[in-house]
Request: fold
Amino acid sequence: MTDKRHDWTRGVYAITDAQLLPSDRQLLEACRSALKGGLALLQYRDKSGDLSHRVRQALALAMMCRDYGVPLIINDDLALAQRLRDDGFAEVGLHLGQQDGSLREAREVLGGEAIIGATCHARLDLAERAASEGASYLAFGRFFVSKTKPEAPPATLDLLGEAGRFDLPRVAIGGIDIDNVGMAREAGAELLATVHGVFGDVNPEARVRALNARLAAYP
Ligand SMILES: Cc1ncc(COP(=O)(O)OP(=O)(O)O)c(N)n1
Ligand SMILES: Cc1nc(C(=O)O)sc1CCOP(=O)(O)O
Ligand SMILES: [Mg+2]
Reply:
């Protein structure tokens, strides 16, 4: 029998953006389009602080992601991830940056199976710590010029090769797009995370397909 479980550890990791997708309708249409293109992971990233808005949008995305068999990752907010998991969305995970609370605590709360990612910037010491605290993947960046977060600290691609020693999926983030996704993959990133590379276009599905086609050249 073939194993049809979704492999979230390789491929395109799309991240939503409230400036690019301000309404519920825009967010949901764009995410459905991106999911049709074939995502490994989708992250809900919303800095509004409006709890009811965030719960409503995250719940709608969790339902949609379930239909496509793609894990939804909640940015920053352990309580929201926990709430969705308590509502039966067992595929919901969490992404934590360095200022977003304890990874160890998140692992305890969400359990051993949850996908929990960690921002490591350009630092292997942060990666080492995240790995020891139970991270499921390690995110490095920013590698290229980012429209979403131009102030993020820069990183160089050789870092990705060095991070292979942690034996966890490596995420490359920051300005990832069609012109450089192959370079980031070749340098060692299994997951290619992008906001503008997917949602900066009227046709996210076509963007994801194009990114996946580039990645297919690197088995
Ligand atoms: C996959 C991925 N990698 C890095 C980040 C950045 O997280 P963080 O440093 O906490 O910054 P914000 O996204 O919260 O502004 C991410 N979200 N996803
Ligand atoms: C959210 C985020 N974190 C980054 C980091 O380097 O930690 S770069 C970034 C923005 C990614 O958006 P885009 O694909 O449009 O550059
Ligand atoms: Mg954060």
About this structure: The chain has one domain: 11-215. The chain has a mean pLDDT of 97.
